Amino acid sequence: MARTLDPARHAARRRHIQDSAAALFAEHGYDRTTTAQICRAAGISPGNLYHYFASKKQVFVAVLTDDDAETADLLEHLLRSDRPLEALTEFVDHLAAPAAAHPAVPKLVLEALLQAHRDPEIAVVLEEADAAERDGMAALVRRAVDAGEARADLDPADTAAWLSTLVGAVYLDGALQEDGDTSVRLGQLRHTVRAYLTA
Amino acid sequence: MARTLDPARHAARRRHIQDSAAALFAEHGYDRTTTAQICRAAGISPGNLYHYFASKKQVFVAVLTDDDAETADLLEHLLRSDRPLEALTEFVDHLAAPAAAHPAVPKLVLEALLQAHRDPEIAVVLEEADAAERDGMAALVRRAVDAGEARADLDPADTAAWLSTLVGAVYLDGALQEDGDTSVRLGQLRHTVRAYLTA
DNA sequence: GTCTATACGGAGATAGAC
DNA sequence: GTCTATCTCCGTATAGAC
């Protein structure tokens, strides 16, 4: 990486490339997205990308690690709630919401999941985020059970895994629907989660 | 395609290549599986594959359309059941079961789903199977509602779509878990479906 | 029908002028 | 820092001997 005279400009340009690449990865998948396409979409010459990223894969990693921190903040806040069941529902909502926000998001996420079990580096990136989410959910489940707001026979870890899977289902749905009425799924998810935790 | 002297042998060999390819597609994905790998796995020389399939993509299509008919048979049978809710549960079970049968199955299915919205030919193949499943489920939901075994406020089509998504969740889970305790998910799915339909 | 050898194109990454 | 040009490898598919 060459010395950069204006770090802010460098970062902005890097971010611009990253965003351009994200859309392409979502649309065509990682393997079928070429560096030439990324450069064209970002409005730079082919090859210039390598002044900002060491490889095509690093571009993908940058896209995936984009918003890791904010979920942790919310979780920390919700763990202090005195209404654990509601907090859990809100957390699930928060995790599922991006799937409905933009059609490209669920496609990108699924693409990442599939790449993960072929590429260890990507697997590590995703597992870190996933482990944090599941641990947080398990803690929220435990609190809900202890407060008598959820079934007593729920195993926190198993339940967290299942809730995580249900959230994944919404992403899956979003990736498959060409039109974008995925917001319906959010309501169904909420109802499903409530019913499973209490029925 | 050259004339074949022994059609039965030809079909068997074609099937052998198809099975070898399925395992590779599941493990490495479609794009990263090379025709050379398929030939090596099938024990034939590179290039000989093209005596059995017109292209790499046709191999993939053959893998995906492998077991289309049997689900239709079961569905037809279940639509005549006089216990609609149980029939619906059994159909969902049937759809989800393969995900737990072998670790490669869910990976292969997800791979297909992602390829589908990049390749129209694959999209058509999957949509045909999917439409049949959803229509069947919607009919089963309607019968369950009419029989008073399920909530009256359920919209058959929306509910079928959601159940289909929940089944997808099990595949998603199976594709992500490296170890194979996916059978737990089948029980959770059953409980989830019951609770959603009746609670 | 099956093999070996290879044509052909495309993709990631680099070289070096400006 | 950005460009153009290109190197190099690899994958699909084909040609043609046996």
TrEMBL record, chains A, B:
Keywords: DNA-binding, Repressor, Transcription, Transcription regulation. Residues 34-53 bind DNA. Residues 11-71 form the HTH tetR-type domain. InterPro entries: BetI_C, DNA-bd_HTH_TetR-type_CS, Homeodomain-like_sf, HTH-type_TetR-like_transc_reg, HTH_TetR, Tet_transcr_reg_TetR-rel_C_sf. Transmembrane segments: none annotated. Pfam families: TetR_C_6, TetR_N. Signal peptide: none annotated. This is TetR/AcrR family transcriptional regulator. It comes from Georgenia alba.
